[in-house]
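Task card 7
Instruction: Convert sequence to structure tokens.
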Amino acid sequence: MRDLLGNRNFLLLVAYFTLPAIAGWVVRDWMPEILREKFSLGQGKAGVSAILFVQIASLTGALLGGVLADRWMRVTPRGVPG
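Output:
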């Protein structure tokens, strides 16, 4: 345990994966309650509304990012596998 906590690269990886997860946790766990209170929605509708748009945006971003990465690979020598 001492070796891990003394390893700078390990600590950077922990921070790199933990910080974005905190933002996801806030959206997933708190947003339905905020929507329920502010807009007088039922619990089910508030939960779906809070998560659905984030998931759609994530899927769209992953697909669009993949297409752009494939195109960029054809343009630059840095993208050519080999």
